Request: fold
Amino acid sequence: MMITISYWDLLALSSLVVLLGSILWLNGFNKVKDLWWATLRMVVQLLFMGIWLSWIFNADNPIWVVFISFIMLCAAGYEISKRQQYRFKKMHSLFIGLLSLSFISLILLVGVLVFIIQPEPWYQPQYLIPLLGMLLGNSMTAIGLGLDTLTRNAIQLKNKIEAQLALGKTAKESMQFIKEQSLHSAMIPIINMLVAAGIISLPGMMTGQILAGADPIEAVKYQIMIMLLIATSTGLGTVMAITLASRRLFDDQQRLQLNQLIKTK
Amino acid sequence: MNKTNTPLLKAQKIVAHGMSSPIDLTVLPGQVWMLSGPSGTGKSLCLKSLANLIPHNGSVQLKQVEQSNMAPESWRKQVMYFAAETAWWLNSIEEHFEKIPHKTQLEYIGLPYSILKRHPDSCSSGEKQRLALLRGLSYSPTVLLLDEITANLDYEATLQVEALLQAYLSGLNLLEIGGEKIHSTVPKERAIIWVSHDREQTQRMASKACLILFKHEKQGLL
Reply:
């Protein structure tokens, strides 16, 4: 059985962040307020999530599962567009992010629930929501990085794109060198995560299951599954996002349209 | 012969966002048009519109074929834009060529064959400009749009570039120099539109041609 932690324990532990803030402040860190605010947000958000989840697990109604999945998707899509230095006009960044996120992650999620884990019913929130969360969290970071690299490079390396267009290359060919760099920056963190798993880092989900009293081998099998899903969904999601975004950068006459992008930071 | 009176490139009321006034051009085969005028009047935008690299209004025809009726890739291979600053996006010079240039082609532009293996950053502006011309001219474009391509070059390099362009205009075939057999004996009709601030260059090159002055006033043509 799992050993529970009391709210008083958590309150005592939060003094650590207060202490950390003071030490950082003494060392010249001027964003102590941000640190405390972020910590407070984390606590409140997670408590809400806990309340939500136990409520949904008991309610046993697919409508609520759909609803919370939708909220999670929108939040992830919003995070992607928020992290861009250059954003597309007319919320296209949000659409591109949302589409690439949901398309790949949802297909993989439904597939793995129906064919591999096979809970009864397949949309059982206890499985669906944590898995979706892990897929979205990782895809979000990778897609955000990939799109940011793509748009920033398109602006900085405008001359190199235009020179290729001038030589009669297609928009797709002219963007190839930037697409490669964007995929690179999106995939490197995932590859590093795979390499470090089990040696340098104990992945969160596995740690949680072990703490909750699960057999380590079973926990590892779950972790391997989720790692494979994460690698696939981030990779395919990024390819999709980068392809959609680089198409958006050109008009129907294959002319580079950088005025589609607006600087945000 | 009435053939030479058919315009190679005809532009009517070309205007892009940022250009001070619409431009009309009727370029005959063999002509060199020199464009000059104060900065900010849209000379580069005019060239980029002719190459269909930016959105614009008005009509452009190449040998009586309307720009919008041709795929942009094929249009740009025939009406080719060359920038002042050459662009290189891969790690060696040779990767930028569809077909690796022949030694004789490099000799013709006065460069050693070994330059192909070098990184673009290690070449001088003059070397890069000549390589960029070789890269572009190997597609045998009909009209060259030159955007101050000698602005960053010294006098010697400028003359070399001008000589290459004069030779191209009078029918030089780079493929032939590269040792390929050319079946067609009819020399290709070619023309140049050149934005340049260099008055001497304008006099040297514009022998057969016209001089356009872009102005801030409405009457853009002189």
The CA atoms of residues 93 and 151 of chain B lie 22 Å apart. The mean pLDDT of chain B is 83. The first helix of chain B runs from residue 43 to 50. The beta strands of chain B are 9-15, 23-27, 32-36, 57-62, 65-66, 79-82, 143-147, 191-195, 211-213.
